[in-house]
Queue: 2 jobs
Job 1
Amino acid sequence: MTADIIDGKAISAELRVKIRDEINELKSLNKNFNPKLVIIQVGSRPDSSTYVRMKLKACSEVGIDCISENVPEDISQEELLAKIEALNNDDLVHGMLVQLPLPPHLNESIITNSVKQSKDIDGFSQLNLASVFKKNDYPLYLPCTPKGILYLLEHEKVGISHKNIVVCGRSDIVGSPLAKLLEKKGATVTILHSKSTEEQKKFYISNADIVVSAVGQANFITGDFIKTGSTIIDVGTNFVPDATKKSGQRMCGDVDFESCLEKAGKITPVPGGVGPMTVVMILVNVLDSAKKAAD
Ligand code: GUN
């Protein structure tokens, strides 16, 4: 069996067109409708700069005004909190995100919690995350990677209810909320993490209808122990040595793509799978926030 490749790049492009058209229409109906996102980047980590550039480009393509505020690496927590507070109080700003990771002197939890819930389009604040974990509750904004994965599964008509799903990784912003959201949709979910044994990993993955891997380890999932016909969602972004590349390395996910391709039913590639979906969900959340502010 050869798996269908889930083309996150194409699916996100389709969605971006819809977002752009909706924004154009709303702007034509209301000249004051001007969705705006502010990204705060602390310091100049090259990986963060790349992600910020991608977000700026995606926003400009759909008509979202996006400003990146680069603040010094050594900014104090008080100064950063004051900046966030000013943006919380700026009615022209509909969404705000602080690019992670932060330098160690800044408390990530305090910083992400200081973003007003109605502007927390990353969905990282306690208020938004807590409602993911409550029965019959739903956050104002879902974190963008879990939201993008749910969108991909629905787009590909991969059923969730009654399924065995394994989520590898238990981060606050991907693994844990995604596992809970899948469970809320009726799946039986197992979370594998750094303390899971190799036997547990093999046992649960070989019985899983859907496997989502978000551990940040190349070749974490290999074709020999996935279930035939299963859906494999790769959230990993890793770099491995590759002498054929000018940079000497290539990007890959957590999944050994070639071996899983032969056995899975559907699979996301890296790049071009989950990554573009995360970016497009930021646009969805900013548009949502701008629409609520205009109501
Ligand atoms: N760093 C890596 N991914 C993300 C993300 O989705 N949001 C923010 N704020 N920082 C990140």
Job 2
Amino acid sequence: HEAILKTVLGDFYSQDKHYGSAYLGDQRFDSDATVDVISPNDGQHLLSISHAKPDVIQQVIASAKAEFYHWRSVPAPQRGELVRLFADKARTAKHQLATIISLEAGKPFQESLGEVQELIDVCDFAVGLSRQLYGLTIATERPNHRMMEQWHPIGPVVIITAFNFPMAVWGWNAAISLICGNPIIWKPSSQTPLCGLACHQLLLSAIKEFGANPELSSIVFGEKPQVEQLVDHKDIALVSATGSCAMGRAVNCRVAARMGRTLLELGGNNAMIVCPSADLELAIRAITFSALGTSGQRCTTLRRLIVHSSLKHQVLTKLEAIYKTVSIGDPFDSSNLMGPLVNQQAIDTMKASINTAISQGGKLITGGQQISNLDNKGKSEHGFYITPAIIDIDPSAEIVQQETFAPLLYVHSYDSLEQALAIQNGVSQGLSSAIFTKDMMEAEIFVSARGSDCGLVNVNIGTSGAEIGGAFGGEKDTGGGRESGSDAWKAYMRRMTNTINYGSELPLAQGISFDM
Ligand code: UN1
């Protein structure tokens, strides 16, 4: 993998595996205290990074602000050309980028390829969008007047991303921010710094080819103090944060205090309803991918299965068989469907949730065993592997309210659709949801105003694996933001309403007139 890192990281590559604390364009900064990054695959030390110091963050923000005054005046279709150049480079480097994702995040290689494709897709989408940042022409009530709406660049955007989608989620935000005229500052997960550096390096080479200023893009490594400094700064026009509800709530409060803008894509507690008419074979396949994909570490992972009571036994039996035989191990070995969890803490949290669920009346059907001696290659022995778990539990149990970021599936049963909907909507998060049914009325009710309260609502497909063309995000504690497709770009621009008088009178709106 070293050769791949060397190629993709270019000048950023460090032979001694020590990386910087921030990269402002192509300028590297360091600080003394280093932090180790451990591979989830085998527990080995991968590299070290350090955390950005306050004066460096200050410089990064100031540079982004200065560059904003230039980039906002580059015509949007030209800004799209920069994103097109980047997408070309990502296409060429697809396998290398996927390798870096599997290395740092432990994602099965096929899924990593999918993630890079998602990054490329959103760039293509943004390129087209760069000619479609449409405003409206609005009918005015006054003669010789014209009203219109324009969308203008908003300013530097801070992008905070998680380890589980270390490139695609940056892509959603970076590609759209750039075509909208905004410089970007990225705070990637400390687990996946090389995923960050690889994307940043590819973008820099596109920026240079395009002839723009490298300071259009920066990376800051750090944790809470670095995030706080970034999000508190008045020159950051938008904070787009993906991660836990707790992180999002904290960021939201800070940014709200300075009247800034946030775009939040936070935790999910996603459910699927399996109805009596469902195509069970299809449903089982969808459940398997949604619950086990990325080892249950997607924000869209299926966490709660709500099965009609007449099917519960059958569904549980089938799932148990799959869960017991699913191949788990080295994400680079294509015979494995599941890789590791991100670290030992994630394993411990999953085990703790299982114990809590059992103490709250749940019955463990299968799973929850940490695998310590995985394969005979001597490679994965110390990785963070665990068998996926299913728990049969009443939906009223407290633990079901929580998102445990692991392959842990709660199964409930229901008798009426109203009851199933109440269970589905009865949690504080509202990201993704699905129903399996061949009954048209059930499907329509599910997507209607009185159906699912989530942002993503699917019929006869699972909860995860959304395409980039739709707006991605959810309601309630999920944060309400929408990223990626549809008109999500509007969050990255400021709306301007213009009223233009081309007459020689000054008629007032609302018919107000004064006898003078
Ligand atoms: C995430 O887990 O933060 O819908 C994003 C999906 C992917 C994106 C997940 N396209 O599962």
